[in-house]
Design goal:
By secondary structure, this protein is α/β, with parallel strands linked by helices. It is built from 16 helices and 8 strands. It is 41% helix and 6% strand. 37% of the residues are buried.
Length: 509
Amino acid sequence: MMAKNMNIQNPATIGRRRRNRQQRLCSFVLDRHYFVIQITLLFIIIFCILAWFWIHIVTALRRGDAVDWNDPSSSMEVVDKDHPMSFTENISGLEKLDVSNMQEPDLRIDSVVAFLINLAELPPQQLWDTFGMGNNDGRNDVNSMYGKDPFSLQELERGKCPSGISTAEWLPPRPWNSEEISSKFQSRAEELKAGRGAGKDKPVLIWYEHISKAGGTTFCGLSKTNLGQSLVPRYFCMPKRLNSNDADGRVGSWTNEELIGYTKREKHVLVANEWDPFDLDKLHLSGRTLDGKTLRLTQDTDPLLLFVTTLRDPLDRLLSAYLFFGRIGETPPEFGLWIKRNLGRLGRYKVGEKGPFRCNVARYNAIVWRFSGGDLQHKVPASSGQKEESQFPLPMTDEKLWRDPFETAIRALSQHDLILPMDIMSKEEGQEAMRRVLGWNEVAIQKGRGNGDRESGHIVTTGKIRNSNAREYLSDEDYRFLWDANWLDNILVLWCRAVFLARLHCSDL
């Protein structure tokens, strides 16, 4: 009886146990519920992250960008080159994009490259005939100039806009944001000339690529007249390097960071590079690239650059360099010997160093060398065993050596805002172009170094202005030899002349 009663549990104890089981069951259910919620949220977060990465990668690939997730610069985006960027600052001070017109990059520059390379591949006699170089009086009669006239220069020289010019294969698009940078430069220059600070506005500089004996002294004189001497480096527009006593700081060898530092120390709005090749990285400061894509501009891209250069007939420039640098002393060397001696010094030239930097003025195809970033190398062709008939050194015509530098030079020149033909610079067309792009109205050179005709805007560094007409100076045989040797530069000069005149005379470009 006692044993049987011992199996009978207290009702209170049974109730406590039942409640404990219910509490453990509820706790288990709640814990499991919370676990499911946490897992679900985690999956949602992971899905959102993967979706963002997928959209970003697909967008970049469609635009042709190479994305490096460890490189902050990989956030640079491709935008429409025909619609300028909106330089609106947000509260963080960073520049931001106007993405309303974002689209694939303009690839017209590829057609330009193909067109000019096709010309460069022509046999010398065919290229000579294509440009009508056999006309001895071609420089005086526009109707007989330019032969087959691949660049429509006969009409452009007369101030006419050729029909169908907008679809011409040789005509590159205007550099992206060119008009906006030009406007910002003019506004900033006026503020500084008036003695007012430019505030927090992004610095804007003219980067003048000064090819020796191609009008650089004249351009520098015009800049000092129109901008005032305080806004232009004193020594022929070439800036001094930090902690250096040299008047010419060789700005062509500066890094972008050095140039940014310079704009923070000085209020100059122009710098000139004469002795070194064009630094292709400088294009990035204006959001441009050689392949035609455009880069996102941030506060780290100070200053904006307005790219300007002046070009001259290659043989006239080469002769002028000889008469200026070579005809010195009682027994100066002959023209051909002077070229040979300078080309022999090229191996000792190094960018940014003193050394024999002036030897580059005697290069064949100096424009290609300059705007390829110095990539066009001078290599003496293998001797054929025959006696040389010319006093001048043989050119290098191996396409494997000139094709890539030639293409780079085409692309770099296509990104320049103003390329002035030297013989037009002081004429009405040149004055109008400088008014539009630079805001310059003064033609007479009132300030700065140089000798010559200041009233008409034509001066030289020292001495007097000389007639450097290579066709008159050289024999027909020597002229033809040097024209063939400099065939790449001849193409570029005529092409740049046509682009300059087309943009001046055609309102829809």
